[in-house]
TrEMBL record:
Classification via Pfam families: TetR_C_16, TetR_N
Keyword DNA-binding: yes
Name the record gives this protein: AcrR family transcriptional regulator
Species assigned in the record: Catenuloplanes nepalensis
DNA-binding region: 31-50
InterPro entries, A to Z: Homeodomain-like_sf (IPR009057), HTH-type_TetR-like_transc_reg (IPR050109), HTH_TetR (IPR001647), Tet_transcr_reg_TetR-rel_C_sf (IPR036271), TetR_C_16 (IPR041678)
Keyword entries, A-Z: DNA-binding
PROSITE patterns: HTH_TETR_2 (PS50977)
Domain HTH tetR-type: 8-68
Length: 182
């Protein structure tokens, strides 16, 4: 094994190797030894820098929604959200699939719930009004998860074969939750 110095470069190599392996093989199919070998580092350094395989996984496979989607006009939020998710599909899909694959691990499931709340439900609820805003935001998050499941897990490409029609249809359903009185 080649020694390349200490500190940040080793941590960065581990991070890059882990991101690639988790996306290719999923959480269960990737070992700390695999990550260390790909990063040309000692397995103990993986744990030293990240604490555990689970914490490393959470550090590298963390999808983020584009904040500008939630900040635009409320009246078109549903269609913008669907369009954005279709546009970022190939970048976001591996992280989404890896998170689902790893969700049987308690720490990952807990973090996934946190991501769901912080990255989707809270920003959406913050834009919504009405006593039932929380329930509508959670329902919209569930609908979006169903869309991602159909497209990225099941691979039903026919559901969005006509992209613009799909955005109008599915985005319209989301929009009814976001602005029910409009």
């Amino acid at each position: 094994m080649t020694r390349r110095g200490s500190g940040t470069p080793t941590r960065d190599r581990i991070h890059v190797a882990a991101a690639r392996l988790f996306r290719e093989r999923g959480f269960a199919g990737t070992s700390v030894r695999d990550i260390a070998a790909a990063a040309e580092a000692d397995p103990a350094l993986v744990i030293r820098h990240f604490g555990s395989k689970e914490l490393l996984f959470l550090d590298v496979v963390r999808p983020h929604l584009d904040e500008s989607v939630f900040g635009g006009p409320l009246g078109t939020l549903g269609t913008r959200l669907v369009g954005m998710l279709l546009d970022v599909g190939e970048e976001f899909r591996p992280a989404y699939v890896a998170l689902l694959q790893g969700s049987a691990e308690a720490r990952i499931a807990e973090q996934l719930r946190g991501l769901h709340e912080q990255e989707f439900v809270a920003p959406l609820r913050a834009r919504m009004t009405g006593a039932d805003a929380d329930a509508r935001a959670r329902t919209a998050a569930a609908m979006t998860g169903g869309m991602l499941y159909a497209l990225w897990i099941v691979g039903d490409d026919r559901v969005a074969a006509d992209r613009e029609s799909f955005i109008r249809r599915y985005g319209g359903l989301l929009q009814r939750l976001i602005t029910p009185d409009a």
